[in-house]
Model the fold of this input.
Amino acid sequence: MSELWIQPSGGALAADVHGVDLSKPISDAVFARIAEAWGKHLVLRFSGQKLDDPTLMKFSARFGALDRVPIAAASLDRANSGVVPEAAEWVAVIASVKKDGKAVGSLGSYELVWHTDMSYNPLPPRASLLYALEVPPDGGNTGFLNMYAAYETLPSDLKRAIEGKSCIHDSSRNSAGELRKGFQRTIDVRQTPGAAHPLVRLHPVTKRKALFLGRRPGAYVHGLPVEESEALLDAVWAHATQERFAWYQKWRAGDLVLWDNRCVMHRRDAFDENLRRLMHRTQIVGEPVLAG
Ligand code: OGA
Ligand code: MN
Done:
């Protein structure tokens, strides 16, 4: 393979990393360049890779300890995923694929709303790495948002309104809106289960401030009357989710996309449920969320 080079997407975030075969050991020097590019571009795409679960786990572990897979939707039987037992706790299967009429993975073919992975946990993952094994010819694109840019351009009245405030990140539903195992529907957002985090987050490595929103459904800004919390969140979300802060990934099999879950949100377009799409994902243990 040729030498490593970084090609920025030209959009609000993301870059391609060329010239690296992730199935082979990565030298510290090469890894340092990948880490530097990641800090700058927030999302990295490595195309044309051939990874099995142990290699995906090995490369992922360069970014920190692997985090456990999230709690599955009530309908999923994980024994059906086909992931080897050593990987079952660490590799999440994101799939529309069915075997004997049963889903082999999470999140089906539906639209996924803008979200941060597992931010309902007290220590949300630092990063996620999503590897495409099978993709449909179209649909199922994944969008990413630059939350530094969203924060930096926030109108000053909104910046003031969220300063020092924290928000509940709903743990009861996944990003497709499905109830997770063991959870009940919540009606009053003040009762939403899940961790609360500062709305403005200081990135521990880059020391830049980013909006940290998690996901809109079930969110609640601590200490505000519900209507005020709803109005404030609506205004901040309307600002943050503008196309000018976004970049979309159109998947090809063999793409591995790594995102910084501390300063990026993501979403997915729906696709035809009869088409096969199969991805394996790892996530990296995060650090305490620092207020910005
Ligand atoms: C995820 C996720 C998006 C996709 O795996 O965390 O949001 O494109 N997936 O499937
Ligand atoms: Mn996700």
Observations:
- The chain has a mean pLDDT of 95.
- Helices lie at 28-41, 53-60, 147-152, 156-162, 226-240.
- The two ends are 41 Å apart (CA to CA).
